[in-house]
Amino acid sequence: MSRYTRSLFIFRRDLRIHDNSGLNQALSTSGSVLPCFIFDPRQIDRHPYQSQPALAFMLESIAELQQAFLSAGSRLALYHTLPVDVVKAAVQQHQIEAVFVNRDYTPFSQKRDAELAQVCHDFNIDFHGVPDYLLTEPEQALKGDHSPYKVFTAFYNNARQLPVALPNALTQANFINSGHVSTVDLDEFVATVAPYTKVKAHSIPGGRNQALAILGQLHEQADYQSVRDYPCLDATSHLSAHLKFGSCSVREAYFAIVQALGAEHPLLRQLYWRDFFTHIAFHYPHVFGKSFNSQYDNVVWDNNLEIFQRWAEGTTGFPIVDAGMRELNASGFMHNRVRMIVASFLVKDLHISWRWGERYFAQHLVDYDPAVNNGNWQWAASTGCDAQPYFRIFNPWLQQQKFDADCLYIKHWLPELAGIPAKTLHQWASRHSGNAYPAPMVEHGLESNLAKQRYKSCSFFTPTE
Length: 465
Hints:
The protein is α/β, with parallel strands linked by helices. It has 22 helices and five strands. The protein has helices spanning 21-29, 41-44, 52-71, 83-94, 107-122, 152-159, 186-192, 208-216, 224-227, 240-245, 250-261, 266-283, 305-313, 319-331, 336-349, 354-364, 370-380, 396-403, 408-413, 422-426, 428-431, 444-456; strands at residues 4-11, 30-38, 77-79, 98-102, 126-130.
């Protein structure tokens, strides 16, 4: 006999039916389950950190999820309101006895789930937040004194010893058919409420079919470690957006990598970086807005808006930086090596706060994940945990010469440089005259020395465990 007669499952960052921990738990403990997705106005309406490419990816994934429900003889209920209002209506209209979600970890997510738990308590029904998004929960991978790790390698060595659950396919489909429920029409919603989410020409498409196609091609990542840093090769997996929105589970990704490439393949390490930054955001929520290491809140920033706009538009006169920013603006994606280069350049060459860069990436990345984006920016800015030491500053000229020697990536995204020899582009600081493409806007050596002086003037420490 089922524990609950009817339950509500709320999809969020888990846009799939198979290997969905919270959904499986709801189905196994309930006579029937009403599945829904809620367009929370606090997230779907315009706000400073909203990414249109990510929103477009999410809408594509929801459309495919809806088709999966239709194929199963059901329908995904869609709402555009606050989650607590959906719960109240579901209790009154469907007499639900429990609400299931997959657990999330940011301050906003925890506040939202606390509100859900409270309204469930008010109606005397159960609330379940089920672990699903990560390989390891924040309470699992801890040091001997039960405190969180602040250095990735130590975290990784601990976390990889913990078992990873095998993926579970959907075994029962006791869904309530929501065809008679008053819900948002997805096509109408996209057309009227979110018309600004047009997919850009180079965007990564959303949906589970795309995720499974990537997982099926992971054998092509055999040389990942040796080619991952070369942006012209486009040799990364492109799984990040699918993991962000859950069109495949992290467990499916983990075991697909193990099966295709082996249990020691470095691509697995990237999954644990995702866990690590999420754990940091959970245990130290002040990182959203402040430096992980508080002494670096004293770093002096110029925060010049005109200079920032040149960085954002890709007109700095540093070809590798500009190529990266134009890739981001055109596609919603940027190669990871180039992300590090442009972040270092903004913070340590242009002396603009990492918070400005964090927000710009949030607005443009198709794979925007608050914890991961924050962790990466604080790493580049030397303000975070296990961060790049402040005195190690990326030289954009050397990075360009090493990782795009023939300037293939640069010329792809900066077509105005197509006819200029790579050697000239590597010496652009002294050979830029007579071309419409701008001269370098700063001198790297001078600005990197200034950055070191500013960081050195702040008290600092380096964590050792």
